[in-house]
Write a structure and sequence with these properties.
The protein has 141 residues and is an alpha+beta fold. The protein is built from four helices and nine strands, in the order H-E-E-E-E-H-E-E-E-H-E-E-H. The chain has one domain: Immunoglobulin-like (Sandwich), CATH 2.60.40. 21% of the residues are buried.
């Protein structure tokens, strides 16, 4: 019975990369596909093996500057911080990027930048204090 109760409220964080290549828009979403809330214990973004440090959107902005320094873009998004309780079946757009100008990256360049050069690590817990880690390099954006 206890095992069933724990499974019935297990969170499961995952990421999703979606795009509108005709408009040069790319977005990374964080989803809780589990049955219970996920208590965020830590949120870390790495680019080329370096941890992006800062408050709020700073790590995401720093990462995008490294990944796409040769391109012009607009960015919007949100972040999750330590202590945030992400409800089940909720998603957040961590970053939506729209490229503009004469030179824009190919979809393959964007895919490579997000999947091979960037790494998202989120430690989280269930309401029963069971611990998990989302590692985007292992699950594949």
């Amino acid at each position: 019975m206890r095992r069933h109760n724990r499974l019935s409220v297990r969170p499961y964080l995952t990421t999703w990369l979606h795009s509108d290549t005709a408009k040069h828009i790319y977005a990374i979403a964080l989803l809780n596909n589990g049955l219970g809330p996920a208590l965020i214990k830590s949120f870390r973004l790495e680019v080329d093996g370096r941890v992006m440090i800062g408050e709020g959107m700073e790590p995401i902005d720093k990462g995008l500057k490294i990944l796409f320094s040769q391109y012009q873009y607009h960015r919007s998004g949100s972040f999750v911080a330590k202590g945030y309780m992400m409800p089940a079946k909720v998603s957040h757009n961590l970053a939506t990027v729209q490229f503009f100008g004469e030179k824009v990256p190919t979809p393959e360049e964007v895919d490579h930048a997000f999947k091979k050069r960037g790494k998202l690590l989120i430690e989280y817990e269930s309401i029963y204090k069971e611990k998990w880690t989302l590692d985007s390099s292992k699950e594949g954006l």
